[in-house]
Specification:
Elements (H helix, E strand, L loop, with lengths): L12 H19 L4 H21 L6 H8 L8 H15 L9 H11 L16 E4 L2 E5 L3 H17 L4 H15 L6 H16 L8 H7 L1 H14 L3 H14 L4 H19 L7 H8 L4 H14 L3 E3 L12 E3 L1 H14 L1
Antiparallel strand pairs: 1-2, 3-4
Helix pairs in contact: 1-11, 2-4, 2-9, 2-12, 6-7, 7-8, 7-11, 10-11, 12-14, 12-15
Length: about 350
């Protein structure tokens, strides 16, 4: 009888410490997960997740453009990149219906995520494939003839393993990327499936922008994959991904929403009248000099929440771009004014 496959990895003191820290943060995060402010943040995080995962694969669309596509607005961008976003939006809408233990669900997810982008969406590759870094091959995946057997073994391990879901999700992610079962879309599928595994442990992971953090540390992500392959064990990748998860949980949700999606955004809305404003003029009104702070803490959350809109949504980076309050934004601004009377 052939022994069941067991992916090689070691549980190090660093991993134990990270898991304990994450578990504590998850507890704090979950207590505020149903607050009204946290619910508003979910939409923002979903857009950040999609933008981050696709950006790792070379997609150049911004969070504002993805928001516009979500709202059915016209966006001027390469057709393939728009298709990638539309597919990702559909895939994350189906997220809760998939079982991470089922190989058929993974194939269905790939079919949806890669529709119109590859010749055989939802089917394992029929030829060899290498992972490239620039013009250099950094990993040659196993032969196509072994893919189905390797994937069946990986799913069998996932279904029966007794290790902590945080570790299991990281191991699956690494092993998936090592096998590289599809012609294309392996990176986004591996990250999607890790989030799915984690969401069955704690539902809040369905809305946590882990992939956005991975994008921020993209070079380290590929380095951790390479280090694990070189060592013949997924331990370096587990440590890296647990660090990413901890960073994604870095702020207590109430603190994050209050600081970014409530207090700062309300300052922005309260400073605006009925006209149109450039980013520069809004920064002057808010007495801000650091543009990234303005973009990430004020402008983008207000856009994602639907309280602001662009005057040129088809060309988000237009030098003539301005911003104005939407009807719901006007109501929020009006409520703020009444609260101060």
């Amino acid at each position: 009888m052939v022994a069941p496959y067991s992916p090689p990895f070691a549980i190090t003191p660093a991993i134990v410490t990270l898991i304990a820290d994450i578990a504590e943060r998850v507890g704090h995060y979950a207590q505020a997960a149903d607050s009204a402010a946290a619910l508003r943040l979910r939409r923002i995080n979903r857009i950040r997740t999609i933008q981050g995962s696709l950006a790792i694969e070379g997609n150049t669309l911004s969070e504002q453009q993805i928001t516009a596509i979500l709202e059915g607005k016209r966006v001027i961008a390469p057709p393939r990149e728009i298709q990638e976003v539309r597919n990702a939006l559909l895939a994350y809408d189906r997220f809760a219906t998939w079982n991470p233990d089922l190989e058929d669900d993974l194939l269905a997810a790939h079919a949806l995520l890669m529709a119109g982008l590859v010749d055989r969406p939802g089917a394992y590759r029929g030829g060899g494939v290498g992972v490239m870094s620039g013009s250099t091959v950094v990993h040659m995946a196993p032969p196509a003839s072994r893919v189905r057997g390797l994937m069946e073994s990986l799913f069998s391990w996932l279904h029966g393993c007794e290790v902590h879901p945080l570790i299991a999700s990281c191991v699956f992610h690494y092993e998936f990327e090592f096998i590289h079962p599809f012609d294309d879309g392996n990176g986004r599928m591996g990250r999607l499936w890790q989030s799915l595994i984690l969401s069955r442990w704690k539902p809040l992971f369905a809305d946590l922008p882990v992939e956005s953090i991975v994008h921020t540390h993209q070079d380290d992500y590929y380095r951790a994959l390479a280090d694990s392959t070189r060592e013949g064990a997924s331990t370096p990748f587990i440590v890296f991904m647990l660090g990413v998860i901890r960073e994604a949980l870095g702020a207590h949700p109430t603190e994050q929403v209050t600081a970014q999606a409530t207090e700062q955004v309300r300052r922005l809305l309260a400073s605006m009248g009925d006209g149109c404003y450039s980013a520069k003029s809004l920064m002057v009104l808010l007495r801000l000099s650091h543009r990234p702070t303005f973009l990430y803490d004020y402008l983008q959350p207000a856009l994602a929440a639907g309280w602001l809109e662009q005057t040129h949504p088809d060309t988000p980076k237009s030098p003539r771009q301005q911003y104005r309050l939407t009807r719901s934004g006007q109501q929020v601004a009006q409520d703020l004014t009444q609260d101060t009377l």
